[in-house]
């Protein structure tokens, strides 16, 4: 077997292993989400339970908790990327509004969600 064929086989095996790893990560659920941590200017400002509904205001950012998920509902930032982001609900997920210095992160028991 020449060197090129052997390298092709090794590449195919590596791709197959990566595909299996992604599949296994996807089928095992993340830890149950319990709360939404609101971080402003690098410090935790609030920890909001996900089992209720409501809106929390942090500066010019409105954070909405509903149906076990959290999202940035309103922000004073120019691009509104954080507002357009889908609601987060799995442990380890986060949304950052860099211009406002706000991050929301879902926390729960066990290992964090891996994307």
Would you kindly provide a written description of the structure presented here, covering whatever features stand out?
With 115 residues, the protein is α+β, with helices and mostly antiparallel strands. The chain has two helices and seven strands. It has helices at 3-27, 81-84; strands at 33-40, 43-49, 54-58, 61-66, 69-74, 94-97, 102-108. It is elongated and about 65 Å long.
Short structural description:
This protein is of the alpha+beta class. 25% of the residues lie in helices and 37% in strands.
Q: Would you spell out the secondary-structure blueprint of this structure?
A:
Elements: H1 3-27, E1 33-40, E2 43-49, E3 54-58, E4 61-66, E5 69-74, H2 81-84, E6 94-97, E7 102-108
Antiparallel strand pairs: 1-2, 1-7, 3-4, 4-5, 6-7
Sum up the structure in keywords:
115 residues; alpha+beta; mini-chromosome maintenance (MCM) complex, domain 2; four-stranded antiparallel beta sheet; three-stranded antiparallel beta sheet; 25% helix; elongated; disordered C terminus
